[in-house]
Amino acid sequence: MVTLLFIVAMFVAFVFQHFSGAVPGFGSQILLLPVIFLSGAATLPVWSMLSLAFIAGLMWDCMHSVIIDGSADFPFGGTIALYAVIGSLMNGLRPLFLRGLWQIHAAFTGVLTSLLVLVEYIIITFRREPFALIWPREVWIRIGGSGLVAAIMAVPIFLFLTWASRRAGLFQPMRNAI
Amino acid sequence: MNSRHANLIAIGAFVAALTVVFILSPHNRQKLQSAFLGMVSPFLKKGSEVDSRWKGYRSGLKKIDDLETENQRLKVDNDQFRATNQALRGVESENIRLKAALGYQDTSPFTLVPARVIGRSPSNWWSTVIIDKGSQDLVDIGLAVVTPDGLVGKVISLSPHSSSVLLISDENCKVAGSVESSKEQGIVRVEVHGQRTSNSIQPTMTLNFLTRFAPLRAGQRVLTSGAGGIYPPEILIGQISEFKSRELDGQATIEPSVDIAALSDVFVITGKKGAAKAL
To answer: Which A-chain residues 90-129 have CB contacts (< 8 A) with chain B?
Structure first.
C-alpha cells in the first residue's frame, strides 16, 4: 500500500516538474521526482525500492530519451539503472531512518540528486559529437544547484515521513535498527 | 523465506526487467514512448491550464500593485475601475498576440497546425517541450516546429494528442542553414564550448563550415537552407552577431530569433500551401 502511494506521488512529481522550471538565474532544474523516489528508497524495503527505481527510471526515459535516427545519446533504460544505484545507496541508510535520523537522509537526497545529474552529464559528454570534455562553472552550478534544491525539498518530506512512521509505530529501538 | 532470499529474488526480477528494457527494439521503444506520452499528456494539459491560471493570477497581482502606486500618485479614488481596466489590457495583449499568430498562419507559405506548449523537459542537459497536438492532428515525427519569430525545433516522438519537440537549443538538433543575400551555407548547432544548454537558458548558436574569409557581417539573417529535407527552406533561425575565421573554415555566432525560454504557442509545419492543390 505504501509502495503504491509512493508510485502515485512519483507520478504527480513527474508531471509537476514539467512546470516547476529552473532556479531563476542559475539554470538548475528543480527535480522533484528523484526526491520522492529517494524518500521512498530511505523508508521502504529493497524490493519496493527496486520497483520504484524501475518505474521512476522508465517514466523518465519514456518521456525524455531523445532518439534521433534510431540512436540516443543516453541509453534507453539507463536511467532505471541509475535510479537503482542511487536508491541502493539511500536504502543502505534505512536503518538510520528507522532510528528517526531524517536529517542525514535529507542531506543525502541532495548529494544523490547531484550524483544523478553528474552521471548524466558524464555519459552525454562521452556520447555526444563532437566530444567536448568541458567543466565550466555553469555545469557545476547546475549539478550542485539541483542537489541543493532537492535537499531543501527533502526536509519537509522526511519530516512528514518521520512523523507518519512514528505514528505507525515503525521506528525501532536503536540496537534493533542497526 | 527470510528477507535475504526475498531481496535476492527482487534483485533478480529487477535485473531481468531491466534487461528487457535495454534490449527493446527501436520500434517497440518508440511504441512504449508513444503510449506513455499519450498517458501523461492529459495530466500535462490540465497542469498547463493550472500553471497558466496561476501565472495569470500572479501577474494580475503585480498589476494591481502597480495600479495602487499609480493611484496614490494621481490621487484617484477608483481602484476597482482601474483594476478592471488593467485586466482588460491583459486580455487585449493576449488578443493581439493571438491575432499575430493567426496572421502568421494566414500569411505563411506553409500549412500550419497551431499548438500550445503544455510541458517543458525538467532535464538539465536536454531541451525538449511537449505540445498539445499529435498524430490525430496530422503531426508526424520529423516535422519542423516554428513560431512567427522563427524556427523552434522538430517533432521527435508523438502520441495521438501530444508530441515531444526537440528544440534547436539542444545539442542533438542540427540545422542546415544559409546566410541571407549570400551564398554561404553551413550547419547551425548549439555552441557547447562554454556550457551545455537546457530549457531555461537562451542558447548561443553557431553556423559552422562557412568559407574561411566569408564577407559576413553582424546583423545578417540566417535561414534554413532546406538541405537534408527535414526543415523547409527560408525559415528564420537567427541573426549573425559575430564572424570569425578558423584554421580551415569560418564560423558565425548566431543570436536565435526565437525566445526558447518563453515558448507558449507554436506551429507545426505539416506541408506547403498549394501542394495539395498541385496534386
So the answer is: 117, 120-121, 124, 128
- What is the Rg, in whole angstroms, of the alpha carbon atoms belonging to chain B? 24
Q: Which of B43, B121, B157 sits opposite A15 (nearest CB)?
A: B43
CB contact under 8 A, B37 and A77: no
pTM over 0.80: no
E-assigned strand segments in chain B:
110-120, 128-131, 144-147, 150-159, 162-167, 175-179, 185-190, 205-210, 221-224, 236-245, 250-256, 265-272
Q: What is the pLDDT of residues A111-146, one digit of tens each?
A: 999 999 999 888 888 877 666 677 777 788 888 888
Instruction: Specify the pLDDT at position B201.
Output: 59
B145 in Cβ contact with B267 (< 8 Å)? yes
Facing A18 at nearest CB: one of B36, B44, B171: B44
Chain A residues close to B192, C-beta within 8 Å? 128, 130, 132, 134
Q: Which residue do the cell numbers 543525502 mark?
A: A108
**Cα torsion at A36, A40, A46, A52 (round to 10°)?**
-40
Euclidean distance between CA atoms A128 and A131, whole angstroms: 6
| Listed residue (A92, A53, A63, A115) closest to B18, CA to CA | A53
Overall average pLDDT of the A144-167 stretch: 88
Is pLDDT above 90 for B217?
no
A73: confidence class by pLDDT, cuts 50, 70, 90: confident
Place of cell 497546425: B113
pLDDT tens digits along B24-41: 888 888 888 888 888 888
What are the helix (H) ranges across A92-136? Answer: 94-97, 102-127
Residue predicted with more confidence, B264 or A83: A83
- Chain A residues in contact with B30 by the CB 8 A cut-off are 67
φ, ψ for residue B188 (rounded to 5)?
A: -95, 130
Q: Provide the pLDDT for residue A113.
A: 93
**Of the candidates B11, B193, B198, which has its C-beta nearest A132's C-beta?**
B193
Structure confidence at residue A173 (pLDDT): 47
Q: Least CB-CB distance to B40: which of A21, A63, A80?
A: A63
Mutate to test the interface with B, among A19, A20, A83 (most CBs of B within 10 A): A19
B188-193: average pLDDT = 71
Best residue in B28, B120, B124, B162 for a mutation probing chain A (most A CBs within 10 Å): B124
Task: Judge contact between A80 and A116, C-beta under 8 A.
Answer: no
CB pairs under 8 A between A and B: 141
In whole angstroms, give the CA distance from residue B235 to residue B237: 6
